[in-house]
Design goal:
Blueprint: H1 3-16, E1 21-25, E2 29-30, H2 70-74, H3 76-84, E3 87-90, E4 97-102, H4 105-114, E5 119-122, E6 127-132, E7 138-142, E8 145-148, E9 154-155, E10 165-166, H5 169-174, H6 205-221, H7 226-241, H8 249-261, H9 266-279
Parallel strand pairs: 6-10
Antiparallel strand pairs: 1-2, 1-3, 3-9, 4-6, 4-8, 5-6, 7-8
Helix pairs in contact: 6-7, 6-8, 7-9
Length: 282
């Protein structure tokens, strides 16, 4: 079996499992644009709002060129690409997966202490941790850590080992960019034994009302990464208002309603609230 045949067989195996793949040139680089799609004229470039693949039959847009179509993989421009390919890549987001790319030993140590265990794939310098669920991709979310999911490609290095777990909020939060209008908690309050028992730091009801209104607005304004926005908003509200008796069920219901209006389920709201409380030691 030649190297080209082995790479194509891998791509066909991935396609059979619903994982869109594409060939890579030497240096883990995708093939360049075809004449039809020069300068991304077809709209498949990652900075466009479209999340769908390029319609061109050739491998011209990296992640957007990834496909499970057996005919496309084995004929025409793709056939010629495989003859020059040196590796196989895949689009994690297209298979509803997220790859946490850990590029060195320090990043791996951090992940083992911070993230839930999941399927692990060794890489040249580190590891890929693979979770069920898609999210926006983001590079350099912390030293040595990239997130590859939607609108990104990852090199296929084998199926890995271990059971795959659901994408956790801790990973989603890594890619979250805080809006400039959101202020951090104004003070650090020691965590009490139980939630709602601490001394109230608020001088007027308007302080809490303004905080809840801002939280609702933040959730409502989210256009991407809604799940992460909801979690981080809950975290911010609890860090300021969760340690005294001011936060009521009515306030929580308002936050849940805002999240559900953006498409979040009641279960996701409950999980995000619970995870935020856990993160704050409540």
């Amino acid at each position: 079996m030649t190297a080209t045949t082995a790479l194509l067989d891998t791509a066909l195996m991935l396609a059979a499992h619903g994982i869109p793949s594409l060939p890579l040139r030497a240096g883990k680089v995708p093939f360049g644009n075809c004449k039809r799609c020069t300068d991304n004229a077809c709209g498949g470039r990652p900075n466009m709002k479209t999340s769908g693949p390029c319609a061109c039959p050739g491998p011209c847009h990296a992640w957007a060129a990834a496909t499970t179509d057996l005919h496309v993989l084995t004929s025409g421009p793709w056939h010629r690409a495989w003859l020059r390919a040196s590796a196989v890549a895949y689009h994690p987001g297209g298979a509803r997966l997220t790859v946490v790319d850990l590029d060195n030993a320090d990043a791996i140590t951090w992940a083992r202490k911070t993230l839930p265990t999941t399927r692990t794939v060794p890489t040249t310098r580190g590891q890929h941790w693979i979770y069920w669920g898609a999210m926006p991709s983001s590079n350099a979310v912390r030293p040595g850590v990239d997130i590859k999911s939607t609108m990104a490609y990852a090199r296929w290095l084998g199926p890995g080992t271990g059971a795959m777990t659901e994408l956790p909020d801790a990973v989603r939060a890594l890619a979250m960019r805080e809006p400039s209008t959101v202020r951090p908690a104004p003070q650090t309050v020691p965590v009490p034994a139980t939630v709602g028992d601490g001394e109230c730091p608020h001088r007027t009801p308007a302080y809490l009302e303004r905080g809840i209104a801002m939280a609702e607005q933040r959730i409502t304004a989210a256009s991407t990464a809604v799940h992460t926005t909801v979690y981080r908003t809950f975290l911010a509200v609890l860090s300021v208002h969760g340690r005294c008796g001011c936060l009521t069920e009515a306030h929580i219901a308002r936050l849940f309603a805002a999240a559900q209006a953006k498409g979040e389920t009641a279960r996701h709201c409950t999980d995000a609230w619970t995870n935020a409380r856990t993160a704050l030691g409540m």
